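Q: What residues go here?
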């Protein structure tokens, strides 16, 4: 089965190794892709585990779980990914549908690396809208 992150690799050889704990994402972009795949695969614990501890209070686990169960994840488009030292930013568009309505979520996420592991720090939503047919 192809990985939801859009890499064209099988899930078990791509984000599945991160979700299972066999490896950690080597870049901010890889972490972004693996977090998108975690939503698609309903891997909520992975989302918690890869969130900066200082940002955990901003996470609504129940809302994330409910949304992930209702949404169908269509594709992830990485617009730009940058890393400098232990900081990274990834601008992306996530395409999904809920109740047969398609949406695009456009965000710039920030990440930080601590002791060799990348963590999601925060996200600034640029736009979420219905997808144009």
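A:
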């Amino acid at each position: 089965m192809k990985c939801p992150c859009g890499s064209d690799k099988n899930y078990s050889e791509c984000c599945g190794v991160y979700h299972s704990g066999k490896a950690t994402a080597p870049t901010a972009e890889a972490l972004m892709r693996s977090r998108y795949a975690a939503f698609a695969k309903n891997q909520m614990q992975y989302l918690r585990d890869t969130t900066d501890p200082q940002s955990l209070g901003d996470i609504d686990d129940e809302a994330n779980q409910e949304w992930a169960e209702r949404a169908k994840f269509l594709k992830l488009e990485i617009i730009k990914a940058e890393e400098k030292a232990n900081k990274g930013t990834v601008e992306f568009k996530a395409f999904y549908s809920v109740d047969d309505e398609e949406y695009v979520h456009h965000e710039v996420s920030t990440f930080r690396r601590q002791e060799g592991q990348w963590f999601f720090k925060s996200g600034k939503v640029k736009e979420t809208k219905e997808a144009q047919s």
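A: Context that may help when evaluating the design: DSSP finds four helices and four strands in the chain. The radius of gyration is 14 Å.
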